[in-house]
Design brief:
transmembrane; cell inner membrane; 75% helix; MetI-like fold; transport; mainly alpha; globular
Length: 546
């Protein structure tokens, strides 16, 4: 039965992973549209993509390192609460964050409404880099924090006992040991940001700041391009090459690992001395602005009838909330999102559990290839996966149906379940399966009664994460929706693109609160288990920006 299961899994992977990606590559090399693309701004879009991804990754890693040192290695006041507040952007979809921050800082936003002064018209490259940095910082922090916790405390104590200053200890001991983690965080964030769609389309495009992701969307939606799928496939190849280059850099860096022997215990906190009070105040102000600022901006726009209307008791209204909650598009979007998320969670759980079992408990010569295939979409921008399914849909009759969105979700999110179950499965002893076989069970029955049953909780956890991610998703859905299959993210995006900022803010506010509540239900209780879950989530979430 195991060879039959392995064959079935390979057939499934060929259908949902290999075929869409191969079709993008094969279609891209079917003709030469490079002159037209260069004239349309391909070079500028590529430069903007690389610059925004690289600069935001650099800033996110630098900010994450400072945050990790403050909340993990110092006596900062209320550092546990500061850590949780700074991680909240991880729970908010980037496109909702873009709507919220533009509603906070730009003309007609919350600050402008209250003070008459608009701090920043953030449309353009600067705003894109700022928001990419903000939404990447939690992921970079989790990577750096995990490495920092494994730095042996004895080395730092010995250096301090020898008279080294805290700055000298950091430069000579701590920094060299966490440098590989800093580089890994940089490449992971940069590859992820290369394919981000929600932030550049909402903040960059209004100022003419195109990236490769927004260029693909523009080419598909304009209706003026001949062979749009072939043209966008060629843009996708550029994104794919950039993404693979980032992964290669990451792999090269990982070939020179630093062995850390500590068991993940936090070292002795560094005393900030006279700087403790001012640094704590600054950290708390930043954390509160990052957390409450976007929330209050969405709330303000949601309860005002139109942008620019003064905020008084007389102007406050709940009409926007009533309108978006009762709108047929919202009801349809919620229904489609829930059905697609549930279906994706079920299919990803079945396929991910099978891949996890076959690559850990029944390993063979094809296991490495199977694992690489299912994890490959994590290094591929979501728009390329969407273009692959658009091409596949034309040949299979799935075009303009919800099945094409479901297929793209399975391609993009199965890796989450695989990463969730591989750890527990790899850590299990083989003695249970041997005992089952000695009792007369066959290979598949022994796997089912022992390893698979014990891995079911991790499978359910991974499937829940898939469902939460799919409900909040925009990048894949925005290219694949058709009349009747709109998802909730696309409905919000549609309000924003139509200039109905109050409606988009009202629906984003509900979406944000429900999303945070849903993630809170998935997060395990207890500080140790929560930190371990967040570290696992950071690696799962890298491949897909929602």
């Amino acid at each position: 039965m195991t060879p039959l299961l392995r064959l079935s899994v390979w057939v499934a992977l060929a259908g949902v992973v290999i075929t869409p990606l191969v079709m993008v590559v094969s279609l891209a090399f079917g003709a030469n549209h490079l002159p037209m693309l260069l004239e349309a701004g391909l070079l500028d879009a590529a430069v903007n993509s690389v610059v925004s991804a690289a600069v935001s990754a650099l800033l996110a890693v630098a900010g994450a390192a400072c945050l990790a040192l403050l909340v993990d290695r110092s006596d900062l006041g209320g550092r546990g609460a500061v850590r949780l507040l700074m991680l909240t952007p991880l729970l908010v979809p980037p496109f909702v964050g873009a709507i919220a921050w533009t509603g906070l800082l730009t003309r007609g936003g919350l600050v402008h409404t209250l003070t008459g002064w608009a701090p920043w018209q953030m449309y353009g490259g600067g705003g894109v880099i700022f928001l990419l940095t903000l939404h990447s910082l939690p992921v970079a922090y989790l990577v750096v924090s995990a490495a920092l916790a494994r730095v042996p405390d004895d080395l730092e104590l010995a250096a301090r006992a020898a008279g080294a200053t805290p700055r000298r200890v950091f430069g000579d001991i701590t920094l060299p040991l966490v440098r590989p983690a800093l580089l890994a965080a940089f490449t992971l964030v940069m590859v992820s940001n290369l394919g981000d769609f929600g932030i550049p389309i909402l903040v960059g495009s209004p100022a003419g700041y195109d990236t490769l992701a927004t260029m693909i969307y523009r080419m598909l939606q304009s209706g003026t391009v001949d062979a749009p799928l072939q043209v966008t496939s060629q843009i996708g190849i550029v994104l794919l090459v950039l993404g693979i280059a980032g992964v290669i850099v990451d792999r090269l860096a990982a070939r020179r690992p630093v062995e850390l022997e500590a068991a993940g215990q936090v070292g002795t906190p560094l005393r900030l001395g006279a700087l403790r009070a001012p640094v704590s105040v600054v950290a708390w102000v930043v954390a509160l602005v990052v957390t409450l600022g976007p929330l209050l901006a969405l709330l303000t726009r949601a309860i005002l009838p139109a942008p620019g209307v003064p905020l008084t008791w007389e102007t406050v209204t709940l009409d926007n909330l009533r309108r978006v909650v009762t709108a047929p598009s919202t009801v349809s979007g919620v229904t489609n999102s829930v059905l697609l998320a549930g279906g994706a969670a079920l299919l990803c759980a079945l396929l991910g559990l099978a891949v996890g079992v076959l690559t850990t408990r029944a390993a063979s010569r094809t296991s490495a290839g199977m694992l690489f295939t299912v994890l490959l979409p994590q290094a591929v921008p979501g728009l390329i996966i969407a273009v692959g399914w658009l091409i596949l849909g034309r040949y299979t009759g799935l075009y303009n149906t919800g099945w094409i969105i479901l297929g793209a979700y399975v391609t993009a999110f199965t890796a989450m379940v695989v990463q969730s179950v591989r750890g527990p499965l790899a850590a299990m002893s083989g003695s249970l399966e041997e005992a089952a076989r000695l009792s007369g069970a066959g290979p598949l029955r022994s796997l089912w009664d022992t390893s698979i049953r014990l891995a079911l909780p991790a499978t359910v956890s991974g499937a829940a994460l898939v469902a939460v991610t799919a409900v909040r998703e925009l990048t894949l859905s925005v290219l694949l929706v058709s009349p009747g299959t709109q998802t909730l993210g696309v409905v919000i995006f549609g309000y924003q693109q139509a200039g109905d900022y109050n409606a988009s803010s009202a629906l984003s506010l509900i979406f944000m609160l429900v999303g945070i509540a849903a993630v809170a239900l998935v997060v395990p209780r207890g500080s140790h288990r929560r930190r371990r879950w967040l570290r696992g989530t950071s690696s799962m979430a890298q491949g897909v920006r929602v």
